[in-house]
Amino acid sequence: MALTFFRGVQTRPLLSYPSIYFALRKHNVSYCNMQNTQLETTERQEGQLKGSTREIHSKPHDKLLKDFEAVIGIETHVQLSTQTKAFCSCPYNYGAAPNTSICPVCMGLPGALPVLNSKVIEAAVKVGLALNCSLSLDSKFDRKQYFYPDLPKGYQISQFDVPIASSGSLDVDLPVEYGGGHRRFGITRVHMEEDAGKLLHTGSGNYSQVDLNRAGVPLLEIVSEPDMRTGIEAAEYAAEIQRLVRYLDVSNGNMQEGSLRCDVNISVRPTGQQEFGTKVEIKNLNSFSSVSRAIDYEISRQVDLHTQGLADQIVQETRLWEEGSQKTITMRKKEGLADYRYFPEPDLPGVTLSEEYINSIGSSLPELPETKRRRYENMGLSMQDVLFLANDITVAKFFDATIAGGADVKLAANWIMGDIAAYMKNAKVSISDIKLSSEELCELIASIKGGTISGKMGKEILFELMAKGGTVKGLIKDKDLVQIVDPVEIEKIVDKVLADNPKQLEQYRGGKTKLQGFFAGQVMKESKGKANPKLLNQILLQKLNATS
Amino acid sequence: MLSSPRLLRHHLPPLQCCFTTAPTQPPSSQILTIKKALLSGETTSVDLTSAFLRRLRRTEPHLKSFLYTPSDQTILQQAQELDNRIQNNEPLGPLAGVVVAVKDNICTCDMPSTAGSRLLENYRPPFDATAVRKLKEKGAIIVGKTNMDEFGMGSTTEGSAFQVTANPWDLSRVPGGSSGGSAAAVSARQCVVSLGSDTGGSVRQPASFCGVVGLKPTYGRVSRYGLVAYASSLDVIGCFGSSVADTGILFHAISGHDKFDATSSKRDVPDPTSQFIANDYLVSKPLKGLRVGVIRETLQDGVDPAVVSSVNSATSHLEDLGCVISEVSLPSFALGLPAYYILASSESSSNLSRYDGVRYGKQLFADELNSLYRNFRANGFGSEVKRRILMGTYALSAGYYDAYYKRAQQVRTIVQKSFRDALDRNDILISPAAPSVAYEIGEKKDDPLAMYAGDIMTVNVNLAGLPALVLPCGFANGGSSGLPVGCQMIGGAFDEEKLLKIGHIFEQTLEGYNFVPPLVADEVGC
Ligand SMILES: [Zn+2]
User: Does the structure show a pLDDT above 90 at A28?
Assistant: First the structure.
């Protein structure tokens, strides 16, 4: 995304810009103008975000599996969906007109001071606990210093040597179509920090402006251990982080809006070697699918260099994933470590957590994805079903509510994953947008199971329930859909059909028994589809085979 | 906030025509006197303010203490509004009609706020500093923004990007710094009281040089919101007045918790007014039993003998008032100076990063981003500021952090502890406010180390975050009528009230001195 790219600009000499100028407009609106030639070209549209990695289409690297091993770690930035920014009372709304949600504090005006929004701590503690981390009872904020036009103070308020949470883990179930399997990846640390603004490029492309709406928005940076070995593992790790923050309701986790950003560190080493190979960082990963594909590309690139004896050409650098060419390209070579001259933020007191506070947050945590998946598994659902249902918190909640209402687990899963999912996909809506409530799905399942309506009728009214709402009972009544389960009544219809089709009856009795289907159809038609199929067939067979 | 009318009536000396005192009388509270005169109808705010403006306009060409003053009309309009309120018997704030000057690093939305820097020339903040907001709410009339060393970095006010301020006692000398403009303005009675800021002595040293009272409050006592940051963990807004009572009333008006400053304290701020008892009502040994520790290290070699003798006589005066004097040693005292310069420079290198040419100052053109930053900062900052940014950047750099910044923080902890120990055994500590009296303009301009050494008396107090009151206690030779010497009283954290009480009794009983500079002596001496 934009942020990722411009971070690159920060330390790369600005080769691509013939001239830059910055301007001051009035006293409180900041923006800058930048002569620009190539910036536009890197702002490419990424393929649509996939909700889960099950849609990733990449090939495993056979030669790697034998001779080489990749070592992958991920830094994830999660934008918290707090009502106000981290250190001021400005709201943040993605897509708002530039510089409409700013104040002296997030503009970094001289004399303005940050005051921490306590909701940021709450979110950090939630995520820390959900990632099984140990929490620091005494952490602090630090200043990370560098110059860039989107960073209004010239430093970012972050956490350096004492993060709020560290040493945790994240459990992941790999997609069944990739062989499945359970993994546990280590979490190095979770820390709080503020976001920077954004550079906007004008249509004419000859200057850039600064939008500070995003400046000061709270972020959690989650750093994994280098525990992943394949693109799929990495993508599934990132998807699980997204699931987690959505379950916890601390972020919308939207990658396209930049609410969830992943930077990947990757190195390759001959299988069995203890030391890590040279590490390369990949940025500009806008979807789980690009995480997976970029890693797989980078693994083959590095393995190729190893096998050609050119391993020394793998250098410590930052590479950009190019969606168009499906390649990573060099963004900047690292010339030693950047010196951010961290020091404790003197404008903010230390962050002190009490055991009581942590416990109260801990006891208010919702059921987390991993726990939910294990519970679904224990309910007898297949891993495919488990992964589908637990993937999206809203779907999982709907499912949980449906079975809490007494619905059969397997039937509820089938309805949700089948017709309901198809409808949502088709209408491009989420489960919270459809008019069907879990209570009515429960009722629907019970009505079919109890024989009040047929499965076919159920399907018919399901669509109406999803699109228009209403109740199962009401629809059955309105549409006169109640099944005919009275054998006498069915017998009457059967008798009438047999009487109306003497020729076919003669043929049947002459041995053409496949005509049973014809009679069944006629009876069903005559009953306007309401005859209980089981009873219908039972009675029909009896009558057909009766010797008159 | 005035505790009771009865107290006023009985405890105040008779009203003087110009609201200051005759040469040998102790200083009175101009603020209380003004309020009384306004309420009684003896004078109007317009008349009072006009008198200050006339003096300001007459003396300003010599002093250059202000970087900006609104037009007389604008200022007098506020006075007129106040007079209307008085006419209508509307309630008046505790600073009603008090003419106040504000250091230019404290944000005012209706006046430029440059912090003495070319980079913020014509910059008008969209908000008032909390201290300024409180001044306005309490009825003060802000008469202008005072000159200062750029971003508060300096001890002479020669570091201003715009002008050099002269000392009202001798126009060839510096007023001290960095709050030199605010100190000179009070000294020359261009205003009643003024706000300064003190990071390493920037209120106390100019108070000493200009012969006025200066208060550096406890860190966190006064909100820093709207104070252009120099070194955030040390910066504090402070007060100047021509009497302890005025200084204390101003301090009380701007103090207290502020939700916009996370480092501001939630403690209550007691109203010090009741402590300001007039001389006639004092008992014979009003400070009986008070333990005063004289800091040995501050009266040793390198300190001007006239300063030493003035502080010694101040000590004797305190003894006469009943204090128990003892000598205390702060072994870490000398370490404080380098530690201060490392920490202050480190924080300033960070705080000043925002002046990068993107938002403030003149628009520059450059071929690439780094040269934009380089050109803008190289041309925009003054040499003292650049020196401190470079020192600070160095001290925070990877590989040097432990040896400098971290080490300096350890020293800071030691300094804090040694003060705590000394204040466990004493009610207050005393020392000079500066090792010398005001020196000639240009004298130390090219010798930064000599200038830094001049901060030895004050920086330790900032490292410890403690309150300190400086008040004039004597004279050294120089100028046409001598140069004032200030004595520093250091108290326990959040115990400004005690300092103000002691300071008030000290000045009310100090006989034979007149701290009105010759520049305005004719006018205010009556
Ligand atoms: Zn804001």
Answer: no
Q: How many inter-chain contacts (A to B, CB under 8 Å) are there? A: 145
**Are A195 and A270 members of one domain?**
yes
Cis previous bond, B187, omega within 30: no
When the pLDDT of each residue in chain B is averaged and rounded to a whole number, the result is 93
What does the pLDDT look like over B22-36, one tens digit per residue?
Answer: 446 788 899 999 999
Same domain, A213 and A289: yes
Q: How far apart are CA B433 and CA B461, in angstroms?
A: 11
Instruction: Give the least confident one: A445-454, B39-48, B315-324.
Output: A445-454
Q: Residue A45 domain-assigned?
A: no
**Model confidence over A143-163: pLDDT tens digits?**
999 999 999 999 999 999 999
ipTM of predicted assembly, 2 dp: 0.93
- For residues A7 and A24, membership in a common domain is answered with yes
Is A209 at the interface with chain B, CB within 8 A?
no
Pair A161, A196 in one domain: yes
Q: How confident is the model at residue A548 (pLDDT cuts 50, 70, 90)?
A: low
pLDDT tens per residue across span B374-385: 999 999 999 999
Q: At what angle do helices A393-404 and A438-449 cross, to 10 degrees?
A: 50
List domains and CATH numbers for chain B.
16-277+285-335+409-520 (3.90.1300.10)
CA of A29 to the centre of ligand 1 (A): 13
Residue to mutate among B105, B347, B369, with most A CBs inside 10 A, is B369
CA distances for A418 relative to A425, B12, B191, angstroms: 11, 90, 81
- In angstroms, the CA A332 to CA A16 distance is 13
Question: CB-based burial of residue B195 (10 Å sphere; 0-12 exposed, 13-18 middle, 19+ buried)?
Answer: buried
d(CA A168, CA A190): 9
Q: Work out the percent of chain A whose per-residue pLDDT is above 70.
A: 87
DSSP 3-state of A190? strand
Cβ proximity of A351 and A164 under 8 Å: yes
Contact (CB, 8 A) for A207 and A21: yes
Min Cα separation B304/chain A (Å): 36
Place of tokens 């120099």: B230
Pair A510, A438 in one domain: no
Give the tokens for residue A236: 């599934």
A359 found inside a domain = no
Residue of B nearest to A16 (CA): B368
Task: Give the pLDDT score at A23.
Answer: 36
* Backbone CA torsion sign across B50, B55, B61, B64: negative
Nearest residue in A to B120, CA atom: A110
- Among residues A448, A478, A508, the one where a domain terminates is A478
Q: Do A22 and B397 touch (CB under 8 A)?
A: no
Q: What's the total number of domains in chain A?
A: 3
pLDDT in tens, A291-334: 999 999 999 999 999 989 998 999 999 999 999 999 999 988 76
Q: How confident is the model at residue A203 (pLDDT cuts 50, 70, 90)?
A: confident
d(CA A231, CA A254): 20
Distance CA A294, CA A326 (A): 7
Chosen for mutation from B132, B358, B374, B400 (greatest number of chain A CBs closer than 10 Å) is B358
Query: A508: domain range?
Result: 487-545
Whether A231 contacts chain B with CB within 8 A: no
Tell me what the mean pLDDT of segment A181-185 comes to: 97
Four-residue CA torsion sign, B373, B374, B376, B381: positive
Buried b (16+ CB within 10 A) or exposed e, A486-519: eeeebbebbeebbeebeebbeebeeeeeebeeeb
Q: How far apart are CA A455 and CA A483, in angstroms?
A: 11
Domain membership flag for residue A271: yes
Please tell me whether residue B102 adopts helix, strand or coil conformation. strand
